[in-house]
Fold:
Amino acid sequence: MTFDVGIIGFGPAGMSAAIYAKRFGLSTIVFEHGISGGNAALSPLIENYLGFPEISGSDLVAAMENHAKKYVDKFVDEKVADVSGGTGRGFELETRREREKVRALIIATGTKHRELGVPGEQKLRGRGVSYCATCDGFFFRNKKVAVIGGGNTAAVEALYLRDLGAEVYLIHRRDKLRAEEVYYKRLNEKKVNLVWNTVVKEILGEKKVEALRLENRVDGTVSEIQVNGVFVAIGDDPQNEIPKMLGVTLREDGYVAVDQNCRTNVKHVYACGDITGLFNQVVVAAAQGALAARSAYEDLTKI
Ligand code: NAP
Structure:
């Protein structure tokens, strides 16, 4: 069978797109090979999603998933390896085991975490090097950890680790956080140690993380800090393999270029959520999912 809409990615954007598409009367197939919920699922605490003053990312996306799955005709728990078609003829999506046809495609593939790219990072990955405090923080309660980065993720993760009883060093390459002001105040209140103008040159340790070699960017001094763990939170890069396969126009930074109704330059291809790089917030992703589904509906039913 040919589905009306194929949705790739089942984070808040893809989930919202599924709800709206189905309610517009379009049949839906969803492809998600990772954890449903996207990056939001990994956030220890979300405080700015309307209606939920405080909720963990996993609880919020679990509620969203329960809701959205009711609107999914077929769920494929596999990576889309290839996409072909276009120019109004629909698209063929291939996974390892399946081949499916859709009339329109909504891309909600989000982003993946960035790596530091320093010696020791790969060797000690999973042995003290982590990219997710929610997933791994528990192992570091009452231990000494570093969080690298100065954005909202780094701030939220540092606070979460502090709440678990860890001694936390937030290491940022500049002298001002990119994170919202509210976090700066809280980091100070909770006695997170802020290390400014500093970059990690190497992660040290044989079988597990033992220390970091740091460089001060202002005076060039090199130092070492003993830590049991390091949480890398230096931002994300777009997962843009599918849009590339389809010839979708990307912005210079690799995010998908969309109009205000989430249409891309390719007929019947839409993008929503973090992959559009507009404002990586759950509330924005959900809203864009609705817009993408409405655009698909309008375009597919146009005479
Ligand atoms: P981000 O906002 O892009 O911040 C990344 C941070 O890492 C920046 O402080 C950046 O430094 C630093 N950085 C980047 N590359 C680095 C490198 N190679 N070495 C050292 N430091 C590096 O990423 P994010 O914090 O993951 O947030 C991603 C998006 O999700 C944002 O839109 C954010 O607002 C959103 N988010 C929101 C919430 C919330 O609303 N509560 C929570 C989590 C995430 P510079 O500042 O010098 O560039």
The first helix runs from residue 12 to 23.
